[in-house]
Amino acid sequence: MVAFYQLYERYSRRLYGFVLRYIKQEADAEEIVQEVFVKIWEARNKIDVYSSFESFLFTIAYNTTISLFRKRATEKKYLEHLKMLQQAGASPDLNDEVQFNELNGQVQSLLNELTPRQKEIFLLSRDEGLTHEEIAKKLNISALTVKKHVANSLAFLKSRMDSSLMYSLLFAYLFLS
């Protein structure tokens, strides 16, 4: 475990800079760096100690970054499709509303599983649209603490909901909100 922490300390900043050059979004770059180290941890018994670890690490970071681009392109196409339906006058049916209510209930249930502080910070960020700095000032805590709470909350929600549910929720929010 100590060796893993040392690897993180040695490479995380460089990986962050590498990913940020492609992504241009700090939060996404941080998430990718975390994801890369999770993948390294999960594959720790399979790593070839005789090959270049640095090359292996940056390859994982690059591939994870490309995967995010693909995911975003798919999401963008989906959103464009939804906008087109909306502009064409398509309206959600009762099934969509029922699904929205179920998904909304699931999200609320998951939010209730967060610590009270995480939930408060997450809702200030997402529902009220406050920046990390604004939340930090309001709650008298550091912006870094806010950032970590939001990242942990997002990771928790992401781990507990599959992407098809997220797309359904997105659809429902666009048409039923």
Instruction: Say how many strands there are.
Output: 0
Helix share of residues? over 70%
The value of Rg in angstroms is: 19 Å
Instruction: Give the overall shape, derived from the CA principal axes.
Output: globular
Mean pLDDT metric: 78
CATH superfamily label of the largest domain: RNA polymerase sigma factor, region 2, helix turn helix motif
* CATH architectural category of the largest domain: Orthogonal Bundle
Largest sheet: none
Number of helices: 8
CATH topology of the largest domain: Rna Polymerase Sigma Factor, Chain: A
N-to-C SSE series? HHHHHHHH
Q: Regions with pLDDT < 50 over 5+ consecutive residues?
A: 173-177
Oligomeric state of the chains present here: single chain
